[in-house]
Amino acid sequence: SGVKTSTLGDRVGIQDFVLLDAHNSETAFLDNLKKRFTEDLIYTYIGTLLISVNPYKELDIYTKKQMDLYMGVNFFELPPHIYALADNVYHTMLSEANNHFILISGESGAGKTEASKKILQYYAVSCPSSTLLDTVRDRMLMSNPVLEAFGNAKTMKNYNSSRFGKYMDIQFDCQVSTNTLLLSSH
Length: 186
Ligand SMILES: Nc1ncnc2c1ncn2[C@@H]1O[C@H](COP(=O)(O)OP(=O)(O)OP(=O)(O)O)[C@@H](O)[C@H]1O
Fold this sequence. Notes:
Elements: H1 26-37, E1 43-46, E2 49-52, H2 64-70, H3 82-96, H4 112-126, H5 131-151, E3 152-153, E4 161-162, E5 166-172, E6 178-185
Helix pairs in contact: 3-4, 4-5
The structure holds adenosine-5'-triphosphate.
């Protein structure tokens, strides 16, 4: 089949496509995604890239407990998760002291907006806290409904489709707290 069972974590199919024997087989690739998806495992890595399949239902994987679990953990120690990616980017930024970006792409309804919200929520919870920062964070998280109210529309593919591209710039101060969020629409 070209798919071998991982010995780590969730054990359904393979968690990282780098381990797929049939690395040039689209069928094996899709089979693995499907196998994991039917077990509600929506995330799979290709090395440090993360593939996400929209579950179109609420999953119990975005709790504070899950966030705590992924904080500061080695990328490949736990099952693939968007929190692992967010955490990895954050810590790489700290250790390399330079800018990093997360590029989220996919067709309409793929779950890009939801993914960006999960990342923001993760940073809101995992970064150091103070009264001022909490205010900035709340504003940051609450900016989404405002932008969606102006820029989203119901389409055939997505009942809440963003009709604009989104660029978010999260700036951290030297105490590595979230500082500012700049948004621009095109
Ligand atoms: N991780 C998730 N868990 C549960 N539901 C999700 C998840 N991701 C997406 N969805 C569901 O799918 C819908 C569409 O997702 P989203 O709006 O993020 O897509 P998009 O890729 O941003 O689409 P567009 O390009 O049209 O704006 C969401 O409103 C939500 O109902």
